[in-house]
Design brief:
With 319 residues, the protein is of the alpha/beta class. 32% of the residues lie in helices and 17% in strands. The chain has a single domain, classed as Arginase, Chain A, CATH 3.40.800. The strands form two sheets. Strands 1-5-2-6-11-10-7-8-9 form a nine-stranded parallel β-sheet, sandwiched between helices. The longest helix has 19 residues.
């Protein structure tokens, strides 16, 4: 076959010999031992209370990786030495939500059992995936503490709509997969929840930081309190990020957008700091609907979250 200097495959990005794109260091997993980062897609959105195309988000987040380099100008270091493997997507059942959640749990539990030393980053999907993701982590690691960024408590009753994207933490608490004292919610927003669910969370010992707390106090101070609360009580800490915690102006591609949310810069500061914590052993990103996004703004923010999470790990020497 003849090679032509200026003829390349359709869609090939511009190549700058001095810049490494983040997408360049993400490689398809070959099935060997996982020791670095493992990206796993959980494209479930049929369980969303409102219309959602969140099953498309793992793909758009992956594409967004190509928009950013591996160089942190703030820290003056590269992330290009990270070993990042993409394990692909967990296949969802066409009609059965519970079966889909069971597939997420079974897959992750098996991966954790066979490869206990990698750092999981789960790309959702709607927030219903949190029940099986945390359940699998608890099976593998023991007591799990969760730091949840969300506009909502996600402890809706299970009678009215079954296991939806509004019920994952209800399921985790009801099944005693996690202890209420081991759940910290950050960014709970005004006029986005019912009083009954605030009461339920409080009665179960959940720590709640509202958006008023986020506005009035440094985000690092809130997270430091959360880490101090959890570190002697759990074996690992997992970060669950529902992108609707971010204000609708900066994350328009969420099914449940709303005003008065967290700024993107505050979220990035928080995620970077969490990445620096040795006990933080996983991250999930949920609730992005690419079909209603604008120029993939929300998926690009999610990609930046992944970068800053790894920046925190690199900064703390946790690679």
């Amino acid at each position: 076959m003849t090679n032509f200097q200026y003829l390349k495959p359709s869609g090939s990005p511009f190549v700058d010999r001095h810049v490494t794109r983040f997408s360049d260091i993400v490689h398809t997993w070959d099935g060997r031992e996982l020791l670095g980062v493992g990206l796993i897609g959980a494209p479930l959105s049929k369980s969303s209370i409102s219309h959602s195309g969140a099953h498309l988000a793992p793909g758009t987040i992956r594409k967004a990786f190509a928009a950013f380099s591996t160089y942190s100008i703030e820290e003056d270091f590269e992330l290009d030495k990270w070993d990042i493997k993409d394990l692909g997507d967990i296949v969802m059942h066409v009609t059965d939500i519970v079966q889909s959640q069971e597939r997420i749990f079974t897959t992750l539990a098996e991966v954790y059992e066979q490869h206990p030393n990698f750092l999981p980053i789960i790309l959702g999907g709607d927030n219903s995936i949190t029940y099986p993701t945390v359940k699998a982590l608890a099976k593998a690691k023991g007591r799990v503490g969760v730091i949840q960024f969300d506009a909502h408590h996600d402890v809706r009753n299970l009678e009215d709509g079954g296991p939806s994207n509004g019920t994952p933490f209800r399921s985790l608490l009801e099944t005693q997969t996690i202890n209420g004292n081991h759940l910290v919610q950050i960014g709970i927003r005004d006029f986005s929840n019912g009083k009954a669910y605030r009461t339920y969370a409080t009665e179960h010992g959940v720590t709640i930081y509202t958006m008023k707390d986020v506005r009035e106090r440094p985000i690092k101070a809130l997270i430091k309190e959360a880490i101090e609360q959890l570190q002697n009580e759990v074996d690992v800490i997992y970060v669950s990020l529902d992108m609707d915690v971010v204000d609708q102006a900066e994350a328009p591609g969420c099914p449940a957008i709303g005003p008065g949310g967290m700024s993107a810069s505050t979220l990035i500061e928080a995620i970077t700091y969490l990445g620096e914590q040795p006990m933080v052993k996983g991250l999930e990103i949920v609730e992005i609907d690419p079909t209603v996004d604008f120029r993939n703004m929300t998926s690009r923010l999610a990609a930046h979250v992944v970068l800053h999470f790894l920046k925190g790990k690199e900064k703390a020497g946790l690679r």
